[in-house]
Amino acid sequence: MSKTFIDKLPLELKNFYVKKIAREASTKIIYKIFLNKKSFIGIDFNKNEYEYKQFIYIYNILSKIDISIPEIIYKDQSNLLLVCEDFGELRYDKILRNYSIKNLLKYSLDTLLVMNKNILFDNSIEIPLYNKNIFINEIKELPLFYFEFIKLKDNKNLLEEEFLNIWLDLYNLIDFEFNKFCHKDFNLNNLLYLPERKNHLKCGVIDFQSAFWGESCWDLFSFLEDSRIDYSNQFNEEMIEYFYKNTYQKISLKSYTFKYHFLNCSRQTRLLGRWIKLSRELNNKSYLNFIPITKKRLESSLSLLKNDKLSNFYNKYIF
């Protein structure tokens, strides 16, 4: 255990057992601190001051609404260190076989509804605004990394141009509203089951420092279409409709669902490239295990878009 982290701790925590927790593709380092039969989570933001400040900034927003986030016990800006409440070991992605999937998803869904209703768009709230440039940079991860991985022999520059043109033609037809608070990484590995709490508060939410203004369906497909976990989508239509009706959308359910699948397709597209990128940068081939699930979820949403150009491209080069 690094003495550096222990030295950063306040005096009352210095002499207690500290265990490092592995985290996927994150610059921050997570520790578990054990103290008198209690435990806390230590987060070392590893010299990333912006991420540290955003975590606290978003925490101050979320702590004012009725959802479950870990309480900050101690913070040290000079060392970019936080000590937070520990939500335990019942992480959604680890317990799906032990609890009702529908109930877990419902707790998450109702948590999203609280966020949607209580955090309204405000230019003074300093979080990023999703836009076309971000969209382009995200989907470009597929041609940048995945094309080489599958050893495409065609001209990669021409393929990338065709790929982007098809996506942008469809993007430009959609009337997006990037004005809803999005956690961004509302994935199953960032949700924890808190059985002692009531109703939606049973869903504990962590890792919210990357929040942005985006479409309301973003966090919805983040956990319903999680690319790391191969679980059934039998409740997806029901959950989408429930969320749609309770967020009082100004568009039809059909249009809302189309946005959902369009953005999910773009996200799964990015992830196909991202898994390759991470496997190389972190020298960890386990990320390649996520590719079949990602392709499965991508193919499912793509079929519902019913866009011939996009489908033909993916059928020829990806599937």
Please give a quick description of this structure.
With 319 residues, the chain is α+β, with helices and mostly antiparallel strands. It is 46% helix and 13% strand.
Please describe what this structure looks like.
By secondary structure, this protein is of the alpha+beta class. It folds into two domains: 3-85, 2-Layer Sandwich (Phosphorylase Kinase, domain 1); 92-317, Alpha-Beta Complex (Aminoglycoside 3'-phosphotransferase, Chain: A, domain 2), CATH 3.90.1200. It has helices at 3-8, 49-62, 92-95, 101-118, 132-139, 141-149, 156-171, 218-224, 236-246, 253-281, 291-305, 308-317; strands spanning 18-21, 29-35, 38-44, 72-76, 81-85, 180-182, 191-193, 203-205, 212-214. A hairpin with a 4-residue loop joins β4 (72-76) and β5 (81-85). α6 packs across α10 and α10 (253-281) runs antiparallel to α11 (291-305). The radius of gyration is 20 Å and the shape is globular. The mean pLDDT is 92.
